[in-house]
Amino acid sequence: MSTSPPSLNDIRACFEGAIPAIMATCGEDGTPNVAYISQVHYVDDRHVALSYQFFNKTRKNILANPYANVLMMDPVAAAFYRLRLRYLRTESGGALFERMKAQLAGIASHSGMAGVFRLLGSDVYEVEAVESVEGERLAPVSHPKPGLLAGVRRAAERMAGCCATDELLQTTLAALNDHLGVHHAMVLMLDSATQRLYTVASCGYATSGIGSEIEMGHGVIGVAARERTPVRISHMTNAASYSHAVRSSLRATEPDIALDTEIPFPGLAEPHSQLAAPIVSGGRLLGALFVESPTELRFSFEDEDALVAVASHLGAALELLRAVDEPVAVEEASPPVAPSASGAPLPVRHYLANNSVFVADSYLIKGVAGAILGKLLREYSEQGRTEFTNRELRLDPSIRLPDLADNLEARLVLLQRRLAENSPHLRIEKTGRGRFRLRVERPVTLTEIAG
Questions:
Q1: pLDDT at residue 182 tops 60
Q2: Sheet strands side by side (includes 273-281)
């Protein structure tokens, strides 16, 4: 009884890079050439891509004769497959190129060849046939991972029940831990004005890193966000040079300030697997969802598919909550009287040039979140106000939101957590949809410094 030939989707385990593939080409004079290649990259159900790193015999042959055979092995079943390929083009930019570049960087770092491996292009091939090679195979092995589809379903159900941005972020990370076995993760949101991603939620780290930043295009997270494509690394990377937080300081714009404003990035010291997926909704980039592990080959293509699904659901949920975060018109009694602040005055400096805020000489926050805190403390000091709404913040030109679609609620979550971790005498409490309260437990001495 004949069976249909396998498809690329059937053999996706072969594309994990655990076992090098063998590529056969033929020169203009008919001379064959066989070479090992570090990784064959799955593009879609009809195409694969190979890394162009050197102008060697293989590439010379392909440019002269566009046909090749590639022999691949399933690392679990020990089954061999032969791909018959036809060269189409070379891409030197874009999502595919950046994914392959990131993966190659991980392989190079793992093998001590970071200064040698450099991706020049992504050679795209059409797969004309996939053939199963006869031979003995190992018995199927059951995977200990939780059912990914069931995990995504449970995560989506929990996320759908969230009514606030802070709740949604925490629920997403908890669902990754509980249902997908991911113990180190973080959510970053995009600041469109600065083109940086700032951490708003994390789990599994000694310090939360809330407020730490990554530049667009930097490392696994920045590339995934810039190219709006998932990026997966299966080998150890150099965290210091490849996925570290961008150091930011006020010294360039405020030379009189001698204090560093870096918030340490909460990544693993020695990550052996990393995976980042963009958070996109309505064609607009909102941020990135990032997971990592100290175990090599922890995230497979199936994990990638699952994380992309969770990130997509997160993006839709964030946009829905943003659309309904305006205050509901309800009849309220007089606002509660704020408890009188007592104790030694709490000095707060607000630098208007970039809205950085220092509380008792310790850096707290900057940017839009810093502008929000500056407004709240200014109106508290001048008018005794403690009750505020999202709407008034959005309409206040001094806060300089990048655009009307900016997720103000995410900025408030960032500010709320930074205060909770670093300034216990100042707090922000949500009091209803689009409403919150500033709690001040010590007298505040606010100094605003023009830049």
A1: yes
A2: 213-215, 196-203, 185-191, 284-293, 273-281, 231-233
